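subagent[fold] <- orchestrator: predict structure for attached chain, return tokens only, no commentary.
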Amino acid sequence: MQTEVLRVLRAEARSWWRHRALRRIGGLDEGLRLERKTVRNDIGYLRAAFSNPNAYVSCGGGGTILHLELTTVSLYASVERFPLASLAVRLGTPLIDCRPVRDIIAFANLPKVTMDGTVDPEPWTSSNQITLLTYLDLVERLGARIVNDPRAGCAT
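subagent[fold] -> orchestrator:
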């Protein structure tokens, strides 16, 4: 699996227009350096996704976001076209597919997932923080589809 992850990340880094342009104009060393840096960064994002139990991937009409501790990684494309998020999901990070959700106002007013373990008491507003498991319950009631569900007894 590690070889496959590296293969996907390297292929994605090679496909970036800036890296291709550098190789084309003779900046092979600079292009390779940037590709290696990109792969290292992506591996760091994957490690962060696995080390934080509240990390998750969300996919909606506006794109895909990998939610990590203090940062997010996003792309205006579906999860299938975002190799980093797709790898995270294949390796077990929960995916919340928000595309079936019709009540966008209720979805936008949901509390945020805590990344540091701080949880606010009910009643919640959009500025509160809750655990990922509680968030999954709330988004599922709105119609979102969950993949790699970490809740006990849930099939993926």
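orchestrator: received. Logging for downstream: The mean pLDDT is 86. The helical segments are 2-15, 17-24, 28-51, 83-90, 104-108, 132-141.
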